[in-house]
Design goal:
single chain, alpha+beta, elongated
Amino acid sequence: MADVGRFELASGRSLHLRELRQYLTYEGLLEGLPTAEGNERMLERLAAERRGKTYPDGPAHLIRPTERPVAYRKGERYPFGTPSALPRVTCIGRFQSFEPTSHRAGDFSGLVVIWFQEEYAFPIDPDVTRQILGIDWDGLAADIDY
């Protein structure tokens, strides 16, 4: 990353982070443990909230997080699912390229990227940065008109 919020893909395309929203992943969990089942519902909801949005956002792409097991009382089964946690911070970044995708159907292109990391950004977790740099922009981003 050359500077904060600017990414250069292997293709030479520059991406610019225009907006970054962050919040604690389990901020609303009032009691109990996070579970793999609840996490899956959360991931589906995050992607669904972005469907159909265009200007200025573009579609959404989820970088699938790694879950870690959460310990429960030894030898006992947790009654509400499989205890499992996502990284602590949910990040939703709106990226734009000043160029349209290879389809050339707009003035610029955009994509919302959703990821998780243990700390608030900046910096963005290095593993996530590698995944952002590996995004198939032409396949995932939308061309957008001003």
